[in-house]
Amino acid sequence: MIYLDSAATTAVRREVLEAMWPYLTGDFGNPSSTHSLGERAADALAAARASVAADFGARPSEIVFTSGGTEADNLALKGIALARPKGRHLITTPIEHEAVLESCDYLRRQHGFTVSMLGVGLDGLVDPDELTALLTPGTTLVSVMYANNEIGTIQPIADLAERAHAASTVLHTDAVQAAGWLPLDVSVLGVDALTVSGHKLGAPKGIGALYVRGRVPLEPVLHGGGQERGARSGTENVAGAVGLATALRLAETSRAAEAARVTVLRDEFIAAVQREVPDALLTGHPEHRLPGLASFCFTGTSGEAVLLELERQGIVCSSGSACAAGSDEPSHVLVAVGYEPEVAQTAARFTMGPAITADELREAAAAVKSAVLAVQGIAR
Ligand code: PLP
């Protein structure tokens, strides 16, 4: 099998599992317990927090461990908006993950916020000047994802953060897909909050983290025992936090080299697919795109049918985001950037992990050709 669905999830890395193992077995204590088992767990959690903070150029007290990207996005949006509602105005984009879009919608329905959407062109990029135009003295929070999970477009986050700050507001970025590929230094990015998720980069599902700049007030979403300095109650997932810290550190160590290597392979794959299937439409921005993501609309097909045909040939990919897959709705991202719903239904997304090889991608490109032709009924 050739796995081209790394944006959906990844396998746990051996080094990550080895780092986690002690905290799932012998050192299984609850970090809140005062006995030695508890202290060892608390020490491991503190070390994981310090490691993640170092990778973000942040302070340990600015890291909140969560159950994943969805929870971190919910905490960022609801937590920041409800702590300091100001003019009850949010700005986001229509191509965010549902975790952001639905949190905005909840704040609109239940707490009287208005939500402004930044426009996006076919390439998925937002225009920083439009952000400046939408910002008001009452803007509570801006949330723009670092890189999109379906089309891979990378947003000009530092510029957007500067504009948000000029209007005395704060900016959150969902960096779930960017982590492992793009720099995460929060000072360079200028962001006030940033979401990551473990399972996209070799840690298990069910662990994530939210960075929140120290001076930004945060209202908890989960109430209970007051763990995570009151920001997120619930017994901490110590092994998960250790796994996330290990995965982030590993990714960070080889990030620049892997990103450069995979970008070359991805571009060869894009060129091969476009050669084999001349009417394939590459989605997203031609340059500002994640190293490991190539997504196409294969007009005259159905994305799901192409996927099934590819799987028959041993290639595993996805029709869009994993969350949208299996639903009859066309991808909200592709529709928002301007594809007709019928065209959006023909999308197939190929996402590579750092271990991808040129041979695998050559094989995949050949399989794409025969899958598309088979679905179009031109050949079998
Ligand atoms: N944000 C983006 C951009 C994602 O791609 C995903 C997962 O696909 C999430 C958030 C949600 O993360 P999790 O699966 O950890 O809840």
Strand and helix layout:
Blueprint: E1 2-3, H1 14-24, H2 36-56, E2 63-66, H3 69-83, E3 89-92, H4 98-111, E4 114-117, H5 128-134, E5 139-143, H6 157-166, E6 170-174, H7 186-189, E7 193-197, E8 208-212, H8 238-276, E9 280-282, E10 293-298, H9 303-312, E11 315-316, H10 332-337, H11 341-344, E12 347-351, H12 358-376
Parallel strand pairs: 1-11, 3-4, 3-5, 5-6, 6-7
Antiparallel strand pairs: 2-8, 7-8, 9-10, 10-12
Helix pairs in contact: 1-8, 2-8, 3-4, 8-12, 9-12
This protein binds pyridoxal-5'-phosphate (PLP).
What can you tell me about this protein's structure?
- The chain has helices at residues 14-24, 36-56, 69-83, 98-111, 128-134, 157-166, 186-189, 238-276, 303-312, 332-337, 341-344, 358-376, and strands spanning 2-3, 63-66, 89-92, 114-117, 139-143, 170-174, 193-197, 208-212, 280-282, 293-298, 315-316, 347-351.
- The protein is α/β, with parallel strands linked by helices and 380 residues long.
- The protein has 2 domains: 14-250, Type I PLP-dependent aspartate aminotransferase-like (Major domain) (Aspartate Aminotransferase, domain 2, 3-Layer(aba) Sandwich); 255-379, Aspartate Aminotransferase, domain 1 (Alpha-Beta Complex).
- The strands form 3 sheets. The chain has a 7-stranded mixed sheet, sandwiched between helices. Strands 9-10-12 form a 3-stranded antiparallel sheet. It has a two-stranded parallel ribbon with strand order 1-11.
- Strand 3, helix 4 and strand 4 form a beta-alpha-beta unit.
- The structure holds pyridoxal-5'-phosphate.
- Pyridoxal-5'-phosphate binds at residues 68-70, 73, 97, 99, 145, 149, 174, 176-177, 197, 199, 208, 321-322.
